[in-house]
Amino acid sequence: MPKSGFSKTFVRPDNRAVLICPYCGQWKSISADPFRGYKHKLKVKCFCKETFIVFLEFRKEVRKKTFLRGSYIDHSQKGSRCDIVILDISVRGLTFSSLDAPTLRIDDELGVEFSLDFGKETDIKRDVIVKNIRQKRVGCEFEISGGAFDDQLGYYVRS
C-alpha cells in the first residue's frame, strides 16, 4: 500500500514515461506526446484493479525553490531597471516575481543580477530571455554564449 496517493515520473528523452503501480509494482511504458504542454497529472488504473495518480515531469533539469532578491535590466525596452524575487532556479533558467511583469513581453532580453544564499555571498550576473509570463511570474531561459556554464550556479541548484 503506498504512503501517498500520487507519484512522480520523469519523461525520458525518447518521450516515454514509465508508470509503476505503487500497489503491486507492475510497470508500463507509455508515450508522453499526448500529454505534453497541457496535462501532467494522470489517473491510472493498473492491471491489479487499483487506481493511482501519476504526475509527469517534463523538465530536463532539477529546479530549486528559492527566495532570492535581485534585479533586472530590460535590454529590449529602454533599459529599465526593476527589483525582483527569484522563486525558483535551474541550470537552464529561472522564474521570478515582479510588479513590472505586465510590461514585459515574450522574447524580451534581460540582464539579471542576484546573490546566491549559501556559504559566502556569490554574485551572479546573467543574460536571460523571457519565455513565459503568468500574472506577476516571469519564466526565463539563460542565454548561454559560447557554451559557457556557471559552476557556482550548478553547484547551488544541485545542493
Strand content: over 45%
Number of helices: 1
- Biggest β-sheet: strands ordered side by side in the sheet: 6-7-8-11-10-9
Q: What is the ordering of alpha helices and beta strands?
A: EEEEEEEEEEEH
**Terminal Cα separation, in Å?**
31 Å
Q: Could you tell me the radius of gyration in angstroms? A: 19 Å
| Unreliable residue stretches | none
In CATH terms, the superfamily of the largest domain is: predicted glycosyltransferase like domains
Q: Kindly state the percentage of residues in helix.
A: under 10%
Secondary structure class reads mainly beta
The CATH level-2 architecture of the largest domain is identified as Beta Barrel
How is the biggest beta sheet arranged? 6 strands, antiparallel, barrel
Shape: elongated
Number of domains: 2
Folded structure, characterized:
- With 159 residues, this protein is mostly beta strands.
- The protein is elongated and about 60 Å long.
- It is built from 1 helix and 11 strands, in the order βββββββββββα.
- Strands 6-7-8-11-10-9 form a 6-stranded antiparallel barrel. It has a 3-stranded mixed beta sheet with strand order 1-5-4, with no helix packed on it. Strands 2-3 form a two-stranded antiparallel sheet.
- It has 2 domains: 6-57, Microbial ribonuclease fold (Roll), CATH 3.10.660; 64-158, Thrombin, subunit H (Beta Barrel), CATH 2.40.10.220.
- The mean pLDDT is 84.
